[in-house]
């Protein structure tokens, strides 16, 4: 009895806390009860200890310590949950993540850490933040065994085994014990193996060099690092053990382990601005834990190495977030698993009814009370299949294995089933739908007088600012003499013919050549240029870089001419953004029309601009905002971005499968439209309608307008006739933000019809995914894992095209370089989901078969024997349950999605009808047996297996044995999502063997098996054939029922309740928009006060 409360408290921790603790204010609590995933409660203890502080702590300087350490002796109270430490803050009156102590750090504050921390301050921070370790706990075998045994499944098994022992089912109980031991052993081995593998991946201890407050440099273990430590990075680089902000020098970093981005990224120093530091907004200046620094330069003595300050340690780092996402995957909002658990309650109700029936039967038969109790409990063990939760996961396990063979890796297997329900898939454009690399198509210089003629080769440009901008405005760097960087920038620099050189050693010679400025790189023009133009270009030195930002849509460099005669800022970015930063008198009048022309042709268009800077000013302290304003417009660079060969075929497959496809890109809207047409995301006969929305200003209200592409001077009737044949909306990021803020009633309709989302910022991509989910779409997202990280995480199914097997970006990573992995993932998801339904129905019907056969036998005072139960459960059911899920998906995607809810009419209807057919078959066999003239009724004063062998038992064993086999065939779905069951060769072989064995036991009863299985030897051979005929007829009836269900016969019952609107909001909205002839309202400028033509609730 002592064990029972422990089991209950392990299942429901809240009860354990209430039993031994009393409620108190959170500030005084010693034990916390944390509720996660709505229902699961976890108990955590609060740790308290005193901190000894320095007497003279500078409160203004060390603002992270002020939150906790404002007295000479302060009580630090914290708890740790999922690797993160939560500390009590009096001013917030709550436990907060330890990261809040650094949330107010500004970029200027981080530069203040360059002088390093003292040993005392470092010790204090280590007490607060803990060690710099991503510690993956590997539980001991005894701990794992204890947790596994206390699983409700095994507790139920133990109770069942005790019951079977009391009922003299010794062999069956011993076999179940053996199987349970093997199952627990395998589970413990796999769990511990995975934990060890993850621990080895997360474990990183290395020697690092830090700067002390005294100015000395000290080599310490990475475990001792704390936020605020000044990290000295050698020129050779290192595998970074923490997150750090780069303060001096440049670092070439391989981030593929985290983001899947295969191209090394150049990190530049963090500007010493007063804005709040965030690793997300300052990604180009942040070095992330787990990434490999390939090369560091320009930040240390002699021109090598770099200097950074530690910003996050342990689980607060980017690598810690990846490990945490693997250890504690996000809870799925998927109804299948929940419905499966709820259905066990229905089986429990069935068991309760069976218990009452058995109780009445046995009570009338004057059976002893101990026997009645055993028989009633035995019915419960039969009706409720404890292996159901484990069985329905086998489909996902097999699918995960097949995906891995195709180079698709999954860190969250339950997501595979969700992939089978995807109804809309969003794609990034560059690198996903189109090739990563681009080819230079041409250059056009521009000025107040207009644009010059198109120059197809930048080498033919005359010397000047445009040529210098193309050669210098990039973040390309050298690694062992080879240029590395963004593919677009590599092509741009290559097209100019200029050569990149980087200073060697301390760079004093190069610095002196360019006026004493610290040079990062030198761009030298080709010598052949002397023969093309009278005036040759001069070499230019890059002294400062402002890297590309998706939010700013631009990058810039600060350059110095030979001898330090002049300094110039060059800016490259989206044409709209660059033009907005230029002086209006320098932008050509034809800017918009020219940009429209090139973008409509599918070209990637970039604009370049420049501005002279006072060379005598402090160039290193110039702010980005000051450098990138009042620019002079230089011209446009056009690059051809080809669609990947597989893209069009995949989009066509998805459209035929009625899976909506959406493009989400940061590129120009016209370029995106052209690509959408090239890959058939927009059909040839379909129109594109541009959505333009403006936000509220001091002078005007927000506006919303729908305009047809290339509408010209057409009448409204002609326009509506064109639109009626099909249309797609195209919207850019600014308009999307305005619609979200000012036109919430129109937002669902725009989302329903929009196919192209252009100039979208990373946060807007994630917001788009969430808005589509609000419409009850099951959303998939495919991207490169870098700028799409937020959207990939937010999506129901996120696929990162990456070389890594695990990415912080998404639950799925694919090593293929195109989107062909998407249909494969959806096919496997549908296959896994269908198999899960099949296994669920099989396990339920297995219980029904055994439940009713036992009820019939108990009615006549007998039961199945020990070895009979063993034969049915192990040789028949278990063997089939493990191989049903091995069947693979069909090669093509069907136009319909499999059901995702168990609580549906087809599922309940099939289970009910098949149960009726099963009972009918068993009763038919029983009454046929009792109607034979040689039948001898069982008339015994004893109960159960002591009456074996007998006729009733034998006929039930024969028929139920066939039912276990054929019901596996009946519920195993194939068309239209899976291959036919005969493609599953192991399943087919087991079926053949089982049918052969069962037929042999019925027709030719071997004395050995007859003795051990306690079977009755029927002398009438025709009767044996009759039993096989009954089973075959039962099989045909079940097949007929399943066929009728598949063709939708049960849907006729829905006619009785009348047609109901869909539960999915996007389906209801689509019906409304399909019937509307007045939406979208073309060529009408609407304001928030206007009423929508199509209302929706």
Features:
1097 residues, alpha+beta, Calcium-transporting ATPase, cytoplasmic transduction domain A, 6 domains, ten-stranded mixed sheet, nine-stranded antiparallel sheet, 18% strand, disordered C terminus
Question: Care to describe what's here?
Answer:
The protein has 1097 residues and is an alpha+beta fold. The chain has 6 domains: 2-102, no CATH class; 149-202; 207-326, Calcium-transporting ATPase, cytoplasmic transduction domain A (Distorted Sandwich), CATH 2.70.150.10; 335-384 and 832-1050, Up-down Bundle (Calcium-transporting ATPase, transmembrane domain), CATH 1.20.1110; 424-434 and 644-711 and 723-818 and 1078-1086, Rossmann fold; 441-525 and 539-615, 3-Layer(aba) Sandwich (Calcium-transporting ATPase, cytoplasmic domain N), CATH 3.40.1110. Helix content is 42%, strand content 18%. It contains 37 helices and 36 strands. The strands form 7 sheets. Strands 16-36-35-34-17-29-33-32-30-31 form a 10-stranded mixed β-sheet, sandwiched between helices. It has a 9-stranded antiparallel β-sheet with strand order 19-18-28-27-26-25-24-23-22, with helices on both faces. A 6-stranded antiparallel β-sheet has the order 8-7-9-15-10-13, with no helix packed on it. A hairpin with a 2-residue loop joins β20 (477-479) and β21. α1 (3-11) packs across α2, α29 (821-859) runs antiparallel to α32 and α30 packs antiparallel against α33 (985-1003). Mean pLDDT is 82; it is low at 52-73, 530-534 and 1091-1097.
């Amino acid at each position: 009895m002592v064990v029972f409360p422990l089991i209950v408290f392990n299942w429901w921790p809240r009860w354990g806390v209430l039993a031994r603790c009393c409620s108190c204010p959170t500030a005084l609590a010693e034990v916390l009860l944390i509720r996660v995933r709505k229902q699961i409660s976890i108990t955590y203890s609060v740790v308290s200890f005193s901190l000894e502080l320095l007497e003279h702590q500078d409160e203004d300087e060390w603002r992270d310590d002020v939150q906790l350490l404002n007295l000479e002796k302060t009580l630090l109270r914290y708890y740790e949950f999922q690797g993160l430490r939560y500390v009590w803050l009096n001013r917030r009156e709550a436990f907060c993540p330890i990261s809040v102590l650094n949330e107010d750090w500004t970029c200027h504050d981080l530069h203040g850490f360059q002088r390093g921390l003292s040993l005392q301050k470092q010790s204090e921070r280590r007490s607060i933040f803990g060690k710099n370790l991503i510690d993956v706990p590997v539980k001991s075998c005894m701990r794992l065994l204890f947790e596994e045994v206390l699983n409700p499944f095994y507790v139920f098994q133990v109770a069942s085994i005790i019951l079977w022992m009391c009922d003299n089912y010794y062999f069956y109980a011993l076999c179940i014990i053996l199987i349970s031991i093997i199952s627990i052993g395998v589970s413990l081995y796999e769990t511990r193996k995975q934990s060890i593998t993850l621990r080895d991946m997360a474990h990183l201890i290395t020697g690092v060099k830090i700067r002390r407050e005294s100015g000395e440099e000290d080599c310490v273990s990475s475990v001792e690092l704390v936020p605020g430590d000044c990290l000295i990075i050698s020129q050779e680089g290192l595998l970074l053990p923490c997150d750090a902000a780069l303060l001096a020098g440049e670092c070439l970093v391989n981030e593929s382990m985290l983001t899947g981005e295969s191209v090394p990224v150049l990190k530049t120093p963090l500007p010493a601005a007063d804005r709040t530091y965030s690793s997300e907004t300052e990604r180009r200046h942040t070095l992330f834990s787990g990434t490999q620094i390939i090369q560091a330069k320009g930040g240390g003595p002699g021109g090598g190495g770099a200097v950074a300050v530690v910003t996050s340690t342990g689980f607060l780092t980017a690598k810690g977030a990846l490990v945490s996402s693997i250890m504690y995957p996000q809870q799925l909002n998927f109804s299948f698993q929940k419905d499966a658990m709820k259905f066990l309650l229905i089986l429990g109700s069935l068991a309760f009814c069976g218990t009452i029936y058995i109780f009445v039967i046995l009570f009338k038969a004057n059976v002893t009370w101990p026997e009645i109790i055993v028989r009633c409990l035995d019915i419960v063990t039969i009706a409720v299949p404890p292996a159901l939760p484990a069985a329905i996961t086998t489909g996902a396990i097999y699918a995960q294995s097949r995906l891995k063979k195709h180079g698709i890796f999954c860190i969250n297997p339950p997501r595979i089933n969700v992939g089978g329900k995807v109804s809309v898939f969003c794609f990034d454009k560059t690198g996903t739908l189109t090739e990563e690399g681009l080819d230079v198509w041409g250059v056009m210089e521009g000025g107040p007088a207009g644009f010059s003629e198109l120059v197809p080769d930048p080498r033919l440009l005359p010397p000047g600012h445009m040529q210098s901008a193309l050669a210098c405005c990039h973040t390309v760097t050298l690694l062992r003499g080879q240029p590395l960087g963004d593919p677009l920038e590599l092509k741009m620099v290559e097209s100019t013919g200029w050569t990149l050189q980087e200073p060697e050693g301390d760079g004093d010679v190069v610095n002196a050549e360019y006026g004493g400025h610290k040079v990062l790189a030198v761009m030298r023009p080709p010598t052949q240029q002397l023969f093309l133009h009278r005036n040759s270009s001069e070499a230019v030195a890059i002294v400062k870089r402002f890297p590309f930002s998706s939010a700013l849509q631009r990058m810039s460099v600060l350059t110095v001419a030979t001898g330090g005669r002049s300094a110039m800022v060059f800016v490259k970015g989206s044409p709209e953004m660059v033009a907005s930063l230029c002086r209006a008198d320098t932008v050509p009048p034809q800017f918009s029309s020219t940009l429209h022309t090139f973008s409509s042709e599918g070209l990637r268009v970039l604009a370049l601009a420049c501005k002279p800077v006072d060379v005598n000013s402090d160039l290193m302290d110039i702010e980005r905002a000051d450098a990138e304003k009042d620019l002079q417009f230089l011209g446009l660079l056009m690059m051809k971005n080809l669609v990947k060969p597989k893209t069009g075929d995949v989009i066509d497959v998805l459209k035929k499968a009625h899976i909506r496809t959406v493009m989400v890109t940061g590129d120009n809207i016209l370029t995106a439209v052209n690509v959408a047409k090239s890959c058939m995301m927009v059909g040839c006969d379909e129109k594109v309608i541009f959505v333009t929305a403006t936000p509220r200003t001091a002078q005007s209200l927000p506006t919303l307008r729908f305009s047809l592409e290339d509408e010209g001077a057409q009448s409204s009737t002609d326009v509506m006739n064109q639109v009626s044949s099909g249309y797609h909306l195209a919207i850019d990021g600014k308009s999307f933000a305005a619609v979200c803020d000012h036109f919430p009633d129109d937002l669902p309709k725009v989302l329903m019809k929009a196919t192209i989302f252009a100039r979208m910022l990373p946060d807007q991509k994630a917001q788009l995914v969430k808005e589509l989910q609000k419409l009850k779409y099951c959303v998939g997202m495919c991207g490169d894992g870098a700028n799409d990280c937020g959207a990939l995480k937010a999506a129901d199914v996120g696929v990162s095209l990456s070389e890594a097997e695990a990415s912080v970006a998404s639950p799925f990573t694919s090593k293929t370089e195109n989107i062909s992995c998407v249909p494969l993932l959806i096919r496997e998801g549908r296959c896994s989901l269908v198999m899960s339904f099949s296994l669920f129905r099989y396990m339920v019907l297995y219980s029904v078969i055994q439940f009713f056969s036992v009820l019939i036998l108990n009615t006549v005072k007998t039961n199945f024997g020990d070895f009979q139960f063993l034969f049915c459960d192990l040789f028949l059911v278990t063997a089939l349950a493990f191989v049903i899920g091995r069947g693979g998906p069909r090669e093509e995607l069907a136009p319909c999605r499999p059901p995702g809810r168990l609580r549906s009419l087809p599922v309940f209807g099939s289970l009910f009808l098949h149960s009726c057919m099963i009972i009918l078959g068993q009763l038919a066999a029983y009454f046929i047996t009792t109607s034979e003239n040689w039948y001898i009724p069982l008339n015994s004063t004893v109960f159960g297996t002591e009456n074996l062998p007998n006729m009733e038992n034998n006929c039930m064993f024969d028929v139920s044995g066939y039912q276990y086999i054929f019901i596996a065939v009946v519920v195993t779905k194939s068309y239209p999502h899976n291959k036919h069951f005969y493609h599953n060769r192991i399943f087919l072989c087991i079926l053949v063997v089982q049918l052969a064995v069962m037929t042999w036991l019925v027709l030719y009863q071997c004395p050995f098996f007859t003795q051990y299985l306690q079977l009755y030897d029927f002398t009438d051979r025709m009767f044996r054939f009759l039993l096989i005929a009954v089973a075959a007829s039962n099989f045909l009836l079940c097949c007929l029922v399943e066929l009728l269900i598949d063709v939708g016969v049960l849907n006729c019952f829905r006619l009785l309740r009348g047609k109901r609107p869909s539960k999915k909001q996007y389906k209801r909205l689509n019906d409304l928009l399909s019937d509307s002839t007045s939406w979208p309202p073309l060529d009408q400028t609407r304001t928030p006060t206007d009423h929508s033509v199509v209302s929706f609730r």
